[in-house]
Amino acid sequence: MFFRQFVKHPGMIGSIIPSSSTLVDSMLSGVDWQRTRLFVEYGPGVGTFTRTILERMHPDATLIAIDLNLDFVAWLEARIADPRLRVVHGSAADVRRFIAEAGHRQADYILSGIPFSTLPDGVGDAICAETQAALRPGGEFLVYQYSAYVRQLLSAQFDEVAEQVEWRNIPPCRTFRARKTERLAQAA
Ligand SMILES: C[S@@+](CC[C@H](N)C(=O)[O-])C[C@H]1O[C@@H](n2cnc3c(N)ncnc32)[C@H](O)[C@@H]1O
User: Fold this and answer.
1) Quick one: which of 31, 154, 171, 173 has the fewest CB in 10 Å?
2) Residues with C-beta less than 6 Å from any ligand 1 atom
3) What is the CA radius of gyration of the chain?
4) pLDDT truncated to tens, each residue of the chain (188 aa)?
């Protein structure tokens, strides 16, 4: 399913295979699950992160998974039955509308698997700006990418960006953790 979608939409999918469980663990290891009530995932694909997020998430929390590809949305809806999950067909650029429609105000964490370097011009900037606005003060934007391109988009919106390389993923993958500091929230 994942490979078929890559062949149909290479720029939108950005990778031939889903992420490894090592990458999933390393991306989610710093999440404060006790405090999280709204988690948003961009580009869930076949649910590689989605299932683990649901396993770790608080019973009262909500996960909004947003994907531009209708086939992935239908796949997830047919395979994961969890009342805490809301699968949305659309663009991450509309995250604030989807959060409001789910009855929430701001997200604690937003995780992204979107291939920023192959998006049409301006879309990556818009997604990062909307994400910053959609996070609560102290909230974090967690991003995994095979290219360093997203670094400049994150630095334009967030004043704290930490970067690492997950060497155990095949191929090795860059991970970014961008925090919405109290200072940034007050400046808005
Ligand atoms: C590399 S795949 C990641 C799949 C999965 N999360 C994983 O780690 O294996 C990228 C995903 O981003 C989705 N995508 C691309 N552009 C998007 C956008 N603007 N908004 C939401 N999803 C998008 C694609 O449809 C695809 O599901």
Assistant:
1) 171
2) 12-15, 18-19, 42-45, 48-49, 66-69, 72, 91-92, 113-115
3) 15
4) 777 877 788 777 777 778 899 999 999 999 999 999 999 999 999 999 999 999 999 999 999 999 999 999 999 999 999 999 999 999 999 999 999 999 999 999 999 999 999 999 999 999 999 999 999 999 999 999 999 999 999 999 999 999 999 998 888 999 999 999 888 888 87
Burial 2-24 (b: 16+ CB within 10 A, else e): eeebbeeeeebbbbeebbeeebb
Residue nearest to atom 14 of ligand 1 (CA): 43
Q: List the domains of the chain with CATH numbers.
A: 2-187 (3.40.50.150)
**Assigned token pair, 169:** 């993923």
